[in-house]
Amino acid sequence: MFSNFTRWYKALPSIAIWIMLALFYFSIGSQISALKGLIHAVVLTSIQYIVYNVNIKWLMPRYHSGYKTKFRVYNTILIVSLAVIGVSIEAFFTKLYPSLRPENFNLFGAFIFHIILCLIAFWISMTKYLEEKQENSIVEIETLKREKAESELKFLKTQVNPHFLFNALNNIYSMAYTGDESTPEKITMLSDMLRYVLYDCESDYISLYKEIDYINSFLEFQQLKTEKRQNITFEVGIHDENYQIAPMLLVTFVENAFKHSKIEKDKSGFVNIELKQNAEEFHFSVENSIRAQTTDKKTGKTRGIGIENARNRLELLYPKKHKLIIVHDEDKYKITLKLYK
After folding, report:
1. 8 A C-beta contact, residue 234 and residue 215
2. By three-state DSSP, how is residue 263 classified?
3. Which residues have a Cβ under 8 Å from the Cβ of 239 and sit 6 or more positions away?
4. How far is CA 284 from CA 228, 232, 237, 317, in A?
């Protein structure tokens, strides 16, 4: 019942237009008599209504794209037939009621008049059909783009950097082999990280503190790669730890920083991470040193598919509500991300 009501509600503008058209024809014919106005309203509106609906619901969907000749032939037959019917009805009533006969009335002129009315209805139906077809095509393209982006997003959210996982397991093995008392803690930490990636990331958004916990764990395993503490800083100033953010979004920038800085091999290397958030804006920045071999010789830019993936995710999840600033110097690379409400 509700679906029928919705269908009728959507059809109201179209119904109103046809009623207004019928009233227009009635007003023209009523200058001769009320009966003439009624005949005009019923006949002329019906003819245009038939041409419009037959075209938009049957002829155009079936024949317009692939069968142009059939489309033209069927429309010609339809328009001429309705024009003949319209003229016949008018001639019949003119003969039945001579007082309704307008001055200078002739069948050929009436036929041309009806042809013109049919062509107007045909042109309107064709215009509307092509407009709706174009709109539907745009919607389908956008839907396909979004589905593709969402599929890529799900893939990105569920993937774990294999190099990080291998190094983490290798470090835990070394710690267990040497009897390090913190080995169980590191095993639990890695387990929590994997749980976050495999389960928590199923949602489009998660609480900010979960992403921060993941980054802290990531940095802790990064430190295990060298005996001496690496030059890594992570400053956090948050207004609401339950602030919702896309999972694994910030981690992408952090992984990119370590990938290109090679901080575990470069004693002068550094990675500085800063996270700030208030009621109006979320601010995240990652600055890292750059080793010469991480730069593309042709473009002079650091490589990173992860950054492009992050751009795509931002466009999908934060349209017109984000700003990504990348500053690339000779010896350092800085990414600043701002998210707005």
Report:
1. yes
2. coil
3. 277, 278, 279
4. 27, 15, 10, 16
Q: What are the structural domains of the chain?
A: 2-155 (no CATH), 206-340 (3.30.565.10)
Kindly write down the DSSP assignment for every residue of 217-233, as one continuous string: HHHHHHHTTSSSPPSEE
pLDDT, averaged per 10 consecutive residues of the chain (341 residues), comes to 52 74 78 76 87 87 82 89 87 75 72 88 87 82 72 58 76 83 90 85 85 93 86 89 87 88 83 91 93 50 64 84 91 92 79
Which residue, among 59, 236, 255, has the nearest Cα to 168 in the 3D structure? Answer: 255
- Contact call for residues 325 and 336 (beta carbons, < 8 A): yes
Q: What is the DSSP string of 7-40?
A: HHHHHHHHHHHHHHHHHHHHHHHTTT-HHHHHHH
| Neighbouring residues of 269: CB distance < 8 A, sequence distance ≥ 6 | 230, 231, 261, 262, 263, 288, 289, 291
- Answer whether 284's CB lies under 8 Å from 272's CB: no
Q: Which residue has the tokens 């919702």?
A: 244
In 3D, which of 282, 300, 291, 266 has the Cα closest to residue 337? Answer: 282
Dist. CA 98–CA 32, nearest whole Å: 12
